[in-house]
Design goal:
Number of domains: 1
Oligomer: single chain
Radius of gyration: 19 Å
Distance between the termini: 49 Å
Strand content: 15-25%
Number of helices: 9
Helix content: 25-40%
CATH architecture: 3-Layer(aba) Sandwich
Largest sheet: 8 strands, mixed
CATH class: Alpha Beta
CATH superfamily: Alpha/Beta hydrolase fold, catalytic domain
Length: 337
């Protein structure tokens, strides 16, 4: 059977656009620094109050929200089917957003097969991890999975600052939206909300990297607590040392006050433990942050790649219910329905 046979014909609207980077001079020529590629899809009739901006993790690209590694529809399509407009991005230096060392600085190490295994299906997960969609000893499947990964910028602070700037300007264009982040893009979500408090209506963070102040191998350090870049704390914090020395609960983030945030964690993922202290710090700073642990909602056997594992449709359902509970009822009340 041809690969396209048996796949339903979708009826959607779609397009793409770029968030341009800054111009700079290089060897007497004008170049552009770190653009961001955005792809959007929407159903014939959008029935949800806010679009969802899907921000990929680590060294991957926006395709992680499309088809799953075993060929099923990903979260982007499922959200469109549920009535949402979605925007998928390739963060600067990833996927269709070009990388050049003159604009983003040196590259970090290439993504290895060993990293893929340790992140997505580590030996320590044992029998608890039942939803990985590929054969663990299938070399062709691993080749295809790793092929989509590239290096991250070596300087995490530069990377997060550029990501946050481009995503903030993307929201200037698309309007108020929910950010749905994964893994390494988690801290970018808080940073964008800090820069565009009127345009980020909520954040769903799928296993965001952490905990606060963590050093993440092959990625970098969250030297400012929740992120690798400074945020607008009250009272202001001038140095990384003062940030580390601040007493718990002594710093607030006025731009995140009462912002609905949920960190989604999986049963068999080593990354899940990082979310509780991250949520605690967000709450101390004034955000309306909470944990959503998938087993508590009847979704079992997942690792860090829960968004594309075999039960990815099931994993999306608690997230959809959270979105509906936090935004749609409020929207209906505001309209007097």
């Amino acid at each position: 059977m041809r690969f396209w046979e048996g796949v339903p014909v979708p009826t959607v609207r779609r397009g793409h656009f770029w968030i341009a980077g800054e111009r700079f001079e290089l060897d007497g020529r004008t170049c552009q620094r770190a653009p961001l590629f955005a792809q959007w899809e929407a159903p014939e009739v959008v029935t949800r109050p806010h679009p969802v901006v899907l921000v990929h993790g680590g060294g991957y690209q926006g395709t992680e929200w499309l088809d799953t590694p075993d060929g099923r529809p990903g979260w982007a399509q499922r959200l469109v089917e549920a009535g949402y407009a979605v925007v998928l991005v390739d963060r600067p230096g990833h996927g269709r957003s070009p990388y050049h060392v003159e604009t983003l600085g040196p590259m970090g190490p290439p993504f290895s097969y060993e990293s893929a295994r340790s992140i997505y299906f580590p030996d320590g997960a044992g029998d608890a991890h039942t939803q990985w969609p590929l054969g663990r000893d299938d070399p062709a499947a691993m080749d295809a999975f790793v092929a989509g990964y590239g290096p991250l910028p070596a300087d995490l602070a530069v990377s997060q600052d550029v990501d946050a700037d481009r995503l903030a300007r993307l929201l200037d264009r698309v309007g108020p939206a929910v950010l749905l982040t994964h893994s390494a893009s988690g801290p970018v979500g808080w940073t964008v909300a800090d820069r565009r408090p009127d345009l980020v209506v909520g954040i769903v963070a799928i296993e965001p990297i952490g905990p606060p102040f963590a050093r993440i191998p092959n990625i970098g350090s969250l030297e400012w607590g929740l992120a690798a870049v400074p945020m607008n704390y009250d009272p202001p914090v001038s140095t990384k040392t003062r940030m580390r020395e601040a007493a718990p609960g002594s710093l607030s983030l006025p731009n995140l006050r009462d912002l609905p945030i949920v960190a989604v964690t999986a049963e068999a993922s080593a990354f899940a433990a990082a979310s509780a202290p991250t949520v605690a710090m967000l709450r101390e700073a004034g955000a309306d942050a909470e944990l959503l642990h998938l087993p508590d909602h009847g979704v079992h056997g997942n690792g860090h790649g829960l968004i594309f594992e075999r039960n990815s449709d099931d994993a999306l359902q608690p997230v959809r219910r959270w979105l509906e509970r936090r935004f749609e009822r409020t929207d209906q009340m505001e309209r007097g329905e």
